[in-house]
Every structure is written in structure tokens, then in C-alpha cells.
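Appendix B, example 12.
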Amino acid sequence: MSLKVSRFQVHENSVQANVSGRTCALSALEIGGEVLVVLTWLGNKDAGLRRPEYVLPLASIPHQSREPDASSPYRWVLTGTLPMSLFDGSASRQVRRQHGVSPGPALNLPLPVTAS
């Protein structure tokens, strides 16, 4: 069975996370009222596209919601620490399951524009 996704919103760099002691910005997808934090992206530079490889439901981890402002662009702040293994592909199935990690939805999105 496939999931047809018609409405979604991408929140680029809107999640503040602590990954093994380092603060970083992650993107999120909002689909059908659920927010999915994108842990890793698969990119195709030739096609100019990317898709979310692994996601983490925001509801499954401690976090705070906030209104972005001039002092902080983050909409969500994760209050726990995520292990680096969730990002570098070395996490065991048990660790992925413990954190609620799942494959990302079948969405092809444009690569973000980066300053050169």
C-alpha cells in the first residue's frame, strides 16, 4: 500500500537539536498535522532534488514549541540529546526503534539554495 501525500509543508532549519553535544539545525516536514524531523536527506544534485531518508516524529521526543523571532529562527527546540549514530547511519535497529525513527515519506523536494 502506498501513501498519497497531497499537502505538506517544509520547515527548513526550524528545529534546534543537540546531537552528541553539538547544537545543530534540522528541517521538519508537516504532513497531515504531524511534524516529522528530518534526520538525513538523500540528494541528487544532477536532478536538483532531495528526499527525506529518515525521519523522527516530533511527538515522540521531548521538545518545546516556540514562535520564531529575530533572536532565534527555531520553531521547535528538542530538549534531549540525539546520538550521532542516527545521522551517520551507524545506529542499530534497536536504537532507531527506541527513538521512533522511520523511513521518510516518498517526497521529492528541490535542493535548498545555498550561498556560494
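The beta strands are 8-19, 22-31, 34-44, 49-57, 63-65, 76-82, 102-103, 109-110. The first strand starts at residue 8 and ends at 19.
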